[in-house]
Amino acid sequence: MTTCAGCGEKEASRLECPNCKKLGIKGSFFCDQDCFKKSSIHSIVQLAAENEANKESTLPANMRNYKFTGPLRPVYPLSAKRVVPPHIKRPDYADHPQGVSAIESVREKRIRILDKEEIEAMRVVCRLGREVLDHTASFIKPGITTDELDAICHQACVERNAYPSPLNYARFPKSVCISVNEVICHGIPDQRPLVEGDIVNLDVSLCFHSDLNATYPVGKIDEESADLIATTKKSVEEAIGICKPGVPYREIGNKIEEIVRPKGYSIVRRYTGHGVHERFHCEPNIVHYGGSKMPGKMEAGHVFTIEPMINLGTANLDHWKDDWTAVTLDGRRSAQFEETILITETGFEILTRPPPTTSSHKKKKKKSKSKANGSSTPNDGDETPEVGTPTGEVADGVKELEVNGSA
């Protein structure tokens, strides 16, 4: 005899809980309608529990008992490792079983000063990195998965004969880091679709190595998230603006703190900016918080990243059990922007920004009424170049250079 799942006393009829039947839960039979209605909470509780279990059903075993700090969940399985054609120059970690870079294992004692050829190679690869980031970001919309964005980024790198630097670096399984909402950095692209109101960071790097990232809204976002993004971007711009030979590296963090702290946001201390060139990560280390005692001063020929990670809440973080994904400890959102900077003889150059466009013909200046009085107003087309962006001479010949992975 099958006992009623409601009262637990009478013999059950063929009346089965429809929710349990849909979920494949056996044994949910009731003696009559009244007993079923009284026990409807049974079905609701079971349904909720089953739905919660389904959220984690795709996760690998080592992640199923992890206590997530926020609402975001990865969706597995991950797609297969993407292939880089053999004609593309590969970094030394590309085929290493543990993703170890031999050149990075030998620490440089001083911050490297790049020579003219290395700087030109950096200009090329950083310009390509900007193209790849902008192209990939143009596909951000509700419904697209982060894995699909990874495929787009990977293809864009390959089309430019460039190796996507994250791929197999310390065994990172994808070609771009994609960090959503409470993910601070190093998010692994997976099968979760982006949804309206998300914020998403794309961190793109191309071998010999450019490094840049930006945080984007997915559709319409709340004002708090929008302000977090704007403040983070402003902190990067202000920090870049102080760069020139002789400036202590710790001043970068002081400037960022000056912008961020009045907003009540926090600055992640665990991760830093870094030197970048033939080595993906090297000296100098760039801390993004104020009051540090980080040694070192900027010199012409230094190339490094500025990439603060700013959180709505606590600066403390945790890591998912995937060896990579860093998340805010309180589950609140995080934003980041990154540029690669060259210190020049007189200031700085943002390598990961496109050079300003120059016109091949002179524009005729329009006369204004005020000109009759000995003054003139600038044309709409007359613009003052942003301080630190490449000049026209710097950009000359960039297209002709090859990125071959080494200088």
What labels describe this entry?
407 residues; alpha+beta; Creatine Amidinohydrolase; 9 helices; 25% helix; 15% strand; disordered C terminus; zinc ion binding; cytoplasm; zinc-finger; Methionine aminopeptidase
Strand and helix map with partners:
Blueprint (H helix, E strand, L loop, with lengths): L14 E2 L1 H6 L5 E2 L2 H6 L1 H16 L46 H4 L10 H22 L8 H14 L17 E4 L2 E3 L13 E8 L3 E8 L5 H19 L8 H11 L5 E2 L5 E3 L6 E5 L16 E4 L2 E3 L5 E3 L6 E3 L5 E3 L2 E5 L4 E3 L41 H4 L12
Antiparallel strand pairs: 1-2, 3-5, 4-13, 5-6, 7-11, 8-9, 10-15, 11-14, 12-13, 15-16
Could you explain the architecture of this structure?
With 407 residues, the chain is α+β, with helices and mostly antiparallel strands. 25% of the residues lie in helices and 15% in strands. It is elongated and about 90 Å long. 38% of the residues are buried. Residues 359-407 have low confidence and may be disordered. Its cofactor is Co(2+); Zn(2+); Mn(2+); Fe(2+). Zn(2+) 4 binds at residues 211, 274, 307, 338. Belongs to the peptidase M24A family. Methionine aminopeptidase type 1 subfamily.
